[in-house]
Amino acid sequence: MRFPGKRKTKHYFPVADTGRVSFDTDFSRKENIYLVGIDQLLVDIEVEVDDEFLQKYSIPKGESCVLDDKLVEEIYQTLVNEDRIIGEYAGGAIGNTLHNYSILSDDKSIALGTICKNIHVGDYAFKYICTTSSKVDFSYLQPKEGKMARAMCFLTPDHERSFAIGKGIMNELDSEFIPENVISGASSLLISTYLLRDESSPLFKSTMKAIEVAKKSNVPVILSLGTSSLVAEKREFFLDILKNYVTIVAMNEQEAKELFLETDPLLAGEKSLDYVDMTLLTVGKRGLYICGHVDESMARETKDLIHSKSISEYNKYEYSRAMKKASCIKPIKIYTHINPYMGGPGEIKNTNGAGDAALAAVLHDISANSYHKELIPNSPKHETEFLTYSSIHQVCKYANRVSYEVLKQNSPRLYQGLPTKEQSLEESYWDL
Q1: Where are the domains of the chain?
Q2: Do 173 and 142 meet the contact criterion of CB atoms below 8 Å apart?
Q3: Which of 2, 9, 112 is nearest to 364 (CA)?
């Protein structure tokens, strides 16, 4: 697994036996570490419109809605004729995260979902595969007759994003295409609330089967919240899912408000820890929070300034590594916050995909912990069962930096060629 930047190496003599790396250790060998994600495979179509256009087609501003495929085609042809299309990209929240994860880690991730049985050069399915990292494994996808799903992202002059989805075959994943052995061996299982929107769909049943397998196999389940209106519509259902299955939840402040009925993001993060082990909470121009648990005996105090907001001295133990609450004898809640990297890009044309990029960084760190544990099981870093490889403070810095890379470009995904260390991609990430 490739780490961002070169890690500083120091040698000490004499060397203790505990945690010592054997001279025979092959750091380049491929360990069985991978991420699995279930997605509604779709193509993002980004367009520039005004508020009147949204009103004409009854598209709620700032939200996501599902439209009839015929209406989506009608809107698409109108946009083509009016030359409003900015670009067409492989998309989907989970698809974006899998791609970004594989770019960051230079390692394998596995996508589960449906794709067109017959793929032709230049069609949507072809574009999806061509613009996704080759490290994302598509061999477990279910081939189906029909059209690829489309998600139109409408950008208004105030930079607000609104989505209209044409479903196509995206909800037709059958449960027999959920490979139990693949999920049980994964470092994490990644899902979104969109998969659980329609309880009558095959996709819903397949997703529930997958998270049951993950729970049985002690594989962390990561839930990315969808649009806030969906969260509000099925609030009690999603709270039950969090309580019974989810290890990490990723959300923005609007989704957090609807789910936990709390306008203050830090207090929403605190409430989330009553349901899950760790939380990634993005707050737009105010950066992001990471909230988690650690055993009192493993808590490490920050060396930075201590801050107080709605929670007094909330970042006091931000130098701690996150743990599952069940692994703690005396669990305490820990928090960290970071403002946008370098104040954010000078010009932000589109925020689409920034949260997915931040989540990919978090998942990279979790997989790095699994990788290191498998490679060097007797390392002192694994004397206690931690969830992350790094402190939540460092994970927050990494997530913030990767999010910046997406914000400064007009694409919801990281480019195949990431900046090098000399271009300042999180130079100090692995130093702490």
Answers
A1: 92-146+171-423
A2: yes
A3: 2
CA distance 384 to 331: 13
Q: CA–CA separation, 252 vs 283, rounded Å?
A: 6
| Nearest alpha carbon to residue 90 among 174, 172, 166, 148 | 148
Strand partners, 281: 251, 289
Token duo for residue 120: 């032709």
Strands (E), 21-148: 35-38, 42-48, 64-67, 85-91, 109-112, 114-116, 136-137, 142-144
Backbone angles phi, psi at 37, to 5 degrees: -135, 140
Is residue 89 within 8 Å of 43, Cβ to Cβ? yes
Describe the crossing of helices 392-407 and 93-105 by its angle, rounded to 10 degrees. 110
Q: Which fold has domain 92-146+171-423?
A: UDP-N-acetylmuramoyl-L-alanine:D-glutamate ligase (3.40.1190)
CA dihedral 341, 343, 345, 351 (to 10 degrees): 80
Those residues whose C-beta lies under 8 Å from the C-beta of residue 367, and which sit 6 or more positions away, are 1, 33, 34, 35, 101, 105, 107, 187, 188
Provide the residue-wise pLDDT of the chain in tens; the chain has 432 residues: 444 444 444 444 444 444 444 444 454 555 578 999 999 998 888 899 999 999 999 899 888 888 988 899 899 899 989 989 888 878 888 999 999 999 999 889 999 999 999 888 878 888 888 888 999 999 999 999 988 888 888 999 888 888 898 889 999 999 999 999 999 999 999 999 999 999 999 999 999 999 999 999 999 999 999 888 899 999 999 999 999 999 999 999 999 999 999 999 999 999 999 999 999 999 988 999 999 999 999 999 999 999 999 999 999 999 999 999 999 999 999 999 999 876 655 555 556 678 899 999 999 999 999 888 888 888 888 888 899 999 999 999 999 999 988 888 767 788 765 443 333 333 333 333
What does the alpha-carbon distance between residue 246 and residue 191 come to, in Å, rounded to a whole number?
10
Q: Is 116 helix (H, G, I), strand (E, B) or coil?
A: strand
DSSP structure class, residue 235: H
Per the CB < 8 A criterion, the answer to whether 249 and 272 are in contact is: yes
Estimate to the nearest angstrom the gap between the alpha carbon of 324 and the chain centroid: 18
Q: List CB contacts of 21: < 8 A, sequence separation 6 or more.
A: 376
For residues 194 and 63, what is the distance between their CA atoms, to the nearest angstrom?
Answer: 13
Task: Provide Rg for the chain, Cα atoms.
Answer: 21
